[in-house]
Design brief:
- There is one protein chain.
- The protein has about 190 residues and is mainly α.
- It has one domain (about 1-185).
- It is about 90% helix and about 0% strand.
- It has helices at about 1-5, 10-25, 30-55, 60-65, 65-85, 85-90, 90-120, 125-145, 150-190.
Length: about 190
């Protein structure tokens, strides 16, 4: 069970992916609008913090740090995201590319996981290999966008995220159980 606790970050990331996938299936436009607004709010807060930092620092340090201009630019970009969410939604396909890139990066990280398991001589190394292959294929499909409409693309993206995340959780749990069994066997061997 120690390995399961060690991989809790992987499980939490997978649960986050499932949540994003479900939200994309329910209402992709509202979900994306929400993400844009949250991003805009974060930029406004960052901008305000930068401006405050500028005025709190010594004039020499402030001139070098350029915090005032960085803060104003961040706050303006944040306000734009909040006010012009609909405009950003019109560039929806670019956001799909971002989701596709995230899935591709997840697939690439699973290649690392597969190679690590092979090098550690783990029996179930093929599970992350299958997950990596699935993620990379889905990412390529999303990035090539062969779909007739954006809605179909978002549905495919949501389903791909959910399946990929569920598969990741299963792999983490199976590997955790295998590691626990191995630790128990090692303890028995030491006692004998």
């Amino acid at each position: 069970m120690k390995n399961l606790k060690f991989n809790i970050n992987g499980i939490l990331l997978s649960v986050f992916e499932i949540t994003v996938g479900i939200l994309l299936l329910i209402n992709p436009i509202s979900f994306t609008s929400g993400i844009i607004c949250v991003f805009g709010i974060a930029l406004v807060v960052l901008g305000i913090v930068s401006v405050i930092r500028y005025f709190k620092s010594k004039p020499e340090e402030a001139a070098v740090g350029r915090e005032l201009s960085k803060g104003i630019i961040a706050a303006a970009a944040g306000v734009f995201c909040i006010v012009k969410t609909e405009w950003l939604i019109t560039i929806f396909p670019l956001l799909t590319i971002a989701y596709g890139m995230i899935i591709l990066l997840a697939g690439i990280s699973k290649i690392q996981w597969t190679v690590d398991m092979l090098r550690l001589k783990r029996k179930r190394w093929f599970l992350p290999a299958i997950g990596a292959l699935f993620s990379i294929i889905c990412a390529i499909i999303i990035l090539n966008n062969p779909f007739a409409s954006t809605t179909v693309l978002w549905i495919f993206t949501g389903i791909a995220l959910i399946i990929e995340a569920i598969f990741s959780i299963v792999i983490i749990i199976i590997n955790g159980l295998t590691e626990s069994e191995k630790n128990v066997q090692d303890e028995k061997n030491v006692q004998e």
